[in-house]
Design brief:
The protein is mainly α and about 250 residues long. About 75% of the residues lie in helices and about 5% in strands. It folds into 3 domains: about 60 residues, no CATH class; about 110 residues; about 35 residues, no CATH class. It contains 9 helices and 2 strands. A two-stranded antiparallel sheet has the order 1-2. Helix 1 runs antiparallel to helix 2, helix 5 runs parallel beside helix 7 and helix 6 runs antiparallel to helix 7.
Length: about 250
Amino acid sequence: MAKKFQKSPWSSAGPVYVAAAAFVGGILVFPATASGIFVAGLTSFCGWAISKMFWPKKLVDAIEDTTAKQQQQETQEVKQEEKKPDIDPDIKKRPRTGDKAIDALLDEEEKAISEMRRLDKAIEDEKVSAQIVHLEDVTTKIVNFIVENPQKKSQVRKFFNYYLPTTLKLLNAYDRMDETGISGMNIDGTKGKVEEMMDTSLAAFDKQLDALYADDALDISAEIKVMEGMLAQEGLKDDAISGLKL
């Protein structure tokens, strides 16, 4: 335990009061002329300077308990660790790429899939369980694509920043209501809405994955057209060969 002393911010108030009293007294004693005011001011200054030298300075104990502070810091660190979601040990950790955005995406993928698997184990409903498995599959495929095509990472920013976390939030709400083990209008109604929303979300996630392949699809279509044209010119395409026979 370390103890140190600090000056009280009020230790200099006394001399100020003395200076003010000296000034007022000077005004009362000396004539209200310029010289009288000057003398009163000089008296005030002298009173302040002298009292400043002899005025007792108050000291305030500032006890700093370093042990308590250290314990508090350790407690905060423990709480922060508790907030971090546990990663399923069965999830194979992907090698990092060195790209901060891609590596952050890989971190989010691991956390999300770990949460999906926890929810899959906790929720008994077969339909919801199948939806969670589908969600994990499409999430993995999207990440695989972005790792291989990092230039398209901006296309999935909203997916990982909003759609995926919101879907997991809805599944957690479903899990909490399912744990009650009871049936009721509010519980059953909410669970039904989550199931319907999962169908909508999964359809959207499938479209997200499909959209990532749009450029590849165009390139392949172009290649096919070029190849068909060359085959036709060489008389190697079926319709061209049929025309020659006629």
